[in-house]
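One chain is below:
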Amino acid sequence: MDNEKVIFCGNSERYLPKELTEKSNESNGGSAFRIPSLIKAGDTLIAVIDKQTSGADWGFIELAVRTSDDGGETWSDIQTIAAPPARETRITDECYASAFFIDSCMAIAPNGDVVMIVDFYPECKGLHKKSILDKKKTPYSMYKNKMYPVIYDRDGKFYLVVENGVVLDNRYNETEYRVADWKGSLYKGDEYVGNIYLNGKTGKNEADAVTTFGAPLKAPKRNYVFMFRSTDNGKTWSEPVDITGQFLTKTDGVFIGVAPGVGLTTQDGRIIMPLYVDRKENVSIYSVDNGETWHRMTQQPYACNVDEWQAVQAPDGTILGLGRQKRYGKTPMSISHDSGKHWFKSKPTGIYAPKCQKSVISIGDYVFCSHASEKKRANGVITIGKFKRVKGQTVGINWYSEVEINQGFFAYSCLTQIDDEYIGVLYEAQPSSYICFKKYKIADLIG
């Protein structure tokens, strides 16, 4: 079905061939883009993307959105919804003097709100330079029966950031410091003294961003999970809230990251969001109050799968999680029969794909999975299947058909149901900066 639309397009020839940068404009453009998330809220399609300066998984990365109220035929102008603190921005992957967002995942809460979680890093290169991450610094501590962020001075002495940004010293006495906002702006009395997520002086600014400098007290360099909320179908968004301390355990290390794409809202009103730990084990967090608070099963903190994953729910309530294989081969799968509270490892399901994120959604008995189909990230397809049942219980998926999305490069993608007639897919059609959308008739896919 040849209805490809370019939704986000880079304007830098460093990251995209010149003939493709010519498709970049004020409505869809920026230096570079990666990692799509797509969901339907009310009558609106919402497409969220990592808006980058470097084309890499670090540097100055904002979150941007476009919406469509006509099933993906036309789209709103690109809107930046969150910019991280930065002391320097450059249109090159050699610079990482900035905090950054990466890997968004949306879900629709039972009350209709759009809930989005995303990784947030202080100034660093994330998992691409683990040596500078703070493996020995505790990021949260309990105080008066609640977890609070911990920040440190240059001597390693800790401080707590409690309600209203008030900073307590290591004896829990109130100090002159306060953290004024989610971006980590630190004040000493009325004097601004820098940003807790940055380290060093203000430098070059090629992205025309708001820049600043590092503070004397700093948050540990590690991954954090921030949550955004939209109450108007993606038109506007709340300021982010750090939810990491609600589910982090000591065994998670310095990375508990968001598996990008979409979460799952179950038949009983539970929002399940997919996370994973340093490319090893899956994590399932859930909310039963429209995303106000988040939980994790302490007796089974990991979800018996690996790496980035997505989940679907069968009509009988069974949840299947599809993971990311370590090399080309069958897709890992895990199963939950109690709304994601407990998981057990299943045999791999019969989708062959390379080491790459994939997207999966279900409509009734049918399951749709978008993924690269070659041994490398190339030739995108939607594979169609039906839930497999044994003695009345869902145990897997029988895959029976495949439809082409594109020829050539294909990496991260996200599926969503548009209406009773169509599904849509948002996908990376170049290694960076070229994010396309197609829609397909459900009847044509299922045969």
The chain has two helices and 35 strands.
